[in-house]
Amino acid sequence: MYPYDNFSGMSPINPQSQYQPQYPRQNQNTNKIYVSSVDDVKRMNLSAGSDYIFLDNDKPFLYQKIVSPNGQFEVKTFTITPYEQKETPNEQNPIDLSGYVKTSELEQIRAELNELKNKLTPKKVEVNNGTTGTTNKSI
């Protein structure tokens, strides 16, 4: 039915052995190393020039062990606390609007200004003899 391999007598194409991707299991261990105390971290033998993080089983502590190239090590302890984001929107730079003019007030001032401008603008006036002149007084 299928062609056979001349050397092994087996079919080079096996329809039952198709590739299926391997997915990580949900309960697979990650790169976290759990310890009982900081003393466990100090006793861990790590390679020179390495940096590891350990989680405490019972307390909210994270330990960092840094091993220098010559084998000396340093252990730092950090406290793990959940981050709670504040839900206050943008209170960093509140804007003080008391120094600004409202649009309605600005329109009123603009109208008054135009009225004063019209009063001060010289107007052409006809005199009885047919000549024109200007005056600053409103008629």
Structural account:
The chain is α+β, with helices and mostly antiparallel strands and 139 residues long. The chain has a domain of 47 residues. 17% of the residues lie in helices and 22% in strands. It has two helices and six strands, in the order βαβββαββ. The strands form two sheets. The chain has a four-stranded mixed β-sheet with strand order 1-2-3-4. The chain has a two-stranded antiparallel sheet with strand order 5-6. It is rod-shaped. The mean pLDDT is 78.
Quickly describe the structure.
By secondary structure, this protein is an alpha+beta fold.
Number of helices: 2
Principal-axis shape equals rod-shaped
Name the beta content range: 15-25%
Helix fraction? 10-25%
Number of E-type strands: 6
Q: List the secondary-structure elements in sequence, H or E.
A: EHEEEHEE
How much is the average pLDDT? 78
**Residue ranges: pLDDT <50 for 5 or more in a row?**
none
Spatial order of the strands in the main sheet? 1-2-3-4
Assembly annotation: single chain
Largest sheet: 4 strands, mixed
- CA-CA gap between termini: 116 Å
Report the structural category: alpha+beta
Q: What does the radius of gyration come to?
A: 44 Å
Question: Secondary-structure map with pairings?
Answer:
Elements: E1 33-35, H1 38-43, E2 51-56, E3 61-67, E4 73-79, H2 103-120, E5 123-126, E6 132-135
Parallel strand pairs: 1-2
Antiparallel strand pairs: 2-3, 3-4, 5-6
